[in-house]
Design goal:
- The chain has 192 residues and is an alpha+beta fold.
- The chain is built from 6 helices and 8 strands.
- The chain has one domain: Gcn5-related N-acetyltransferase (GNAT) (Aminopeptidase).
- The structure holds coenzyme A.
């Protein structure tokens, strides 16, 4: 059984993971939601107008009324602001399983932030929410995403051909990853 706790602040060495707010709209548009270098690896197309981001942000902010909504903005602790977002979704009450997805603005790629955020959310999901299994999938032409899943302890379970069709009508093969709670707890024991 999943214990839903909404979207509490999660702190890591360099990041605060926190709820998004309407004031984040411009920055989210500028740094990842309008950027095709990000959207090419995701299912939703890049936003063309700030109005699209405004609407999406309203939906996200409205979501926080539910304890079953887990969607964090990723903010640098050094005061330089929001750099991306990460969420848990597709909760399945019959299995206790869910999925994770994330985006980091291009300016901050390859600095370890994606891994740091993912590890924090993985810990929250297993330790505080009692999630049974966490899954994610990345396009095979986006190996950086697979790398951060590996660094967060997730295991590749296979490749699904033409699993998604992106906004540019391209079919993409996706590598599917998963991590069981019991595996995560063993990994944690090994880290101590
Ligand atoms: C995937 C993403 C979140 C990674 O964020 P990040 O902050 O750059 O991640 P990190 O810096 O923690 O780690 C990136 C890792 O990928 C590796 N990497 C980067 N480009 C790579 C490539 N072309 N091939 C193989 N590995 C690559 C880096 O070397 C690093 O691994 P290392 O620490 O072992 O050297 C970011 O690239 C992103 O937002 N991409 C677009 C959106 C997206 O793909 N979302 C996920 C959809 S499944």
């Amino acid at each position: 059984m999943i214990y839903f706790k909404g979207t509490p602040v999660l702190r890591t060495n360099r990041l605060n993971l926190r709820k998004l707010c309407m004031d984040d709209t411009q920055r989210a548009f500028d740094h990842w939601l309008s950027d095709e270098r990000i959207s090419d690896h995701r299912v939703s197309p890049a936003h063309k107008t700030i109005a699209e981001t405004h609407k999406r942000m309203e939906k996200t902010v409205d979501g926080y009324v539910s304890k079953e909504f887990c969607h964090w903005g990723i903010e640098l602790k050094d005061g330089s602001g929001l750099i991306g977002e990460i969420d848990l979704y597709d909760f399945d009450s019959s299995t206790g399983n869910c999925e994770v997805s994330y985006s980091i603005g291009y300016d901050w790629w390859n600095k370890g932030y994606g891994t740091e955020a993912l590890k924090a959310v993985v810990e929250f999901a297993f330790i505080h929410m009692n999630v049974h299994k966490l899954s994610a999938a990345h396009n095979t032409d986006n190996p950086a995403s697979g790398r951060i899943m590996e660094k967060a302890g997730m295991k590749q379970e296979g490749v699904i051909r033409h699993m998604i069709r992106n906004a540019k009508d391209q079919y993409k093969d996706c590598a599917v990853y998963g991590l069981l709670r019991e595996e995560y707890l063993l990994q944690r024991e090994g880290d101590v």
